[in-house]
Amino acid sequence: NIEQIGAPLDLYDDPANRFVAGFVGSPKMNFLAAQVVGNGGDATVVELANHGGARLRKPLSGAPPALGAEVVLGVRPEHFFETGEGDCDIAVKADVAEHLGSVSYIYANAGPEELIIEREASRQRATGDHMVVSIKAGRALLFDKSGARIR
Questions:
Q1: Which of 81, 79, 83, 87 is nearest to 44 (CA)?
Q2: Cα–Cα–Cα angle for 27, 49, 136, nearest 5°?
Q3: 3 state SS for 56-121
Q4: Which of 18, 100, 103, 132: CA 20 to 30 A from 26?
Q5: pLDDT, mean of residues 27-53
């Protein structure tokens, strides 16, 4: 099956579904379990399932998902920001820090979720470190339980 047709960067920036989002790009997109806890105006509010009740208000252009719906928040490794720079902070524990010169990849977990976090030239993180990262709503993608993109 062809999932989506387009230029590589268009697929990377604007995937039609969770499969395309996870397939295009390296390192892969992170997926965080969430539940819809509020809808209003042009946005929906999701609560991240494995991050101590952290919530993110995600602007949408289409119809919002139903209250209580299970959804998935997609965040690319380079779209985690420093604490307080985004709309939602989450705590994670670094399992491995891979320093590659101008960029580092932090392989972290929060409960059952394994995340990859990109940092520019960061050598300050080591295995076992606890850290807080921030997610910007405008950089996160939302998918329904079937994998379809919620816009």
A1: 87
A2: 55
A3: EEEECCCCCCCCCCEEEEEECHHHEEECCCCCEEEEEEEEEEEECCCEEEEEEEECCEEEEEEEEC
A4: 132
A5: 96
Contact 15, 24 (CB under 8 A): yes
Task: List the structure tokens of 32.
Answer: 């965080």
User: Quick check: 124 and 117 in contact, CB under 8 A?
Assistant: no
Confidence of residue 14 (pLDDT cuts 50, 70, 90): very high
Reported pTM? 0.94
Kindly tell me if the per-residue pLDDT of 8 is higher than 80: yes
Euclidean distance between CA atoms 89 and 125, whole angstroms:
18
What are the tokens at 85?
């720079």
pLDDT over 70 at 39, yes or no? yes
Distance CA 96, CA 120 (A): 16
How big is the chain by its Cα radius of gyration, in Å?
15
**CATH architecture of the domain covering 8-150:** Beta Barrel (2.40)
**What is the domain partition of the chain in residue ranges?**
8-150
Torsions phi, psi for 89 (to 5 deg) = -100, 140
* Structure tokens belonging to residue 8: 């590589």
